[in-house]
Amino acid sequence: MERAIRDFLNFLAVERGLSRNTVVSYRSDLVFFKNFCARKGFDPLGPGGRGAVSAYLLQLKNDGRSAATISRRLAALKSLYKFLINEGRIESDPTENLESPKKVQKLPRVLTTGEVDRLLAQPSISTPAGMRDKAMLELLYATGIRVSELVSLDRGSINLEEGYIRCLGKGAKERIVPVGQVAVRFAEAYLQRARARLMGSKNSPALFLNRYGNRMTRQGFWKIIKKYTARAGIKKDITPHTLRHSFATHLLENGADLRSVQELLGHADISTTQIYTHLTGSRLKEVYRKSHPRA
């Protein structure tokens, strides 16, 4: 099983071009299954594979795992067994016709435009780090890119004259995203007055640098946004995706069409983007209840 998992992960990384984080996630889910089978004495690649998978899913349910977790782990198993079938290493798929548990769709938490304004006003542009933080927050909200995409940007990824960035999304898919004038202005100020001071004697291609002159990490930026959220007095539980969710919701609230928002976010399937229509629908209902005399 260990070899099967290793070959499958190599296939995901090399042939399908999935990101390192995605591959690591697959490995984590598959190792859970491998270890379960080892403890219980199951042969997941033999005739008893179906029983092993069923027992594993039942164990996850009994352990109180959420429907989302169970669905994700079953999806990983389905992908693994499909790979092994295509490779001719097993004759039947033990996950065939197994259905994932129904997930309760949780709406993403978003900020109001007023809360976004307060958050983006927090960094002090009197220091190189503050200028960097301001540029990062403005760019994140202006483009709706993922935090992982933000910290992966290189100096050559941003074109200030034309007002766009070039980023690599999931599956190493490149997309061009427009950048608004406000974000362009602060990115330009950061590049002219702060980046070289943060880089010091190093020579990094990264657009955003930490105090050691190295590429800003996702964890580093997470600490930054938490700090400014607290300063802004925002009580909501902010995640690294909150500004991305807010970007999409505010676009739809102001008349953007769903297909355009899908392209900006880099979603492969429009059904992923449709969750934001639930948010804007809730907002419309709220406005209706407050505004209509007979609501």
Explain this structure to me?
The chain is mainly α and 295 residues long. The chain has two domains: 2-86, Orthogonal Bundle (DNA polymerase, domain 1), CATH 1.10.150; 113-289, Intergrase catalytic core (hpI Integrase, Chain A, Orthogonal Bundle), CATH 1.10.443. Helix content is 58%, strand content 4%. The chain is built from 14 helices and three strands. It has helices at 2-14, 20-40, 49-62, 67-86, 113-120, 128-143, 147-152, 181-193, 195-199, 218-231, 242-253, 258-265, 270-273, 275-291; strands at 158-159, 164-168, 174-178. A three-stranded antiparallel β-sheet has the order 1-2-3.
Rounded to the nearest angstrom, the distance between the terminal CA atoms is: 60 Å
Largest beta sheet: strand ordering: 1-2-3
Content of β-strand: under 5%
Q: Can you count the helices? A: 14
Give the proportion of residues in helices.
55-70%
* SS class: mainly alpha
CATH architecture of the largest domain: Orthogonal Bundle
Number of E-type strands: 3
Q: Would you identify the CATH H-level superfamily of the largest domain?
A: Intergrase catalytic core
CATH fold assignment of the largest domain: hpI Integrase, Chain A
- Can you write the helix and strand succession as a string? HHHHHHHEEEHHHHHHH
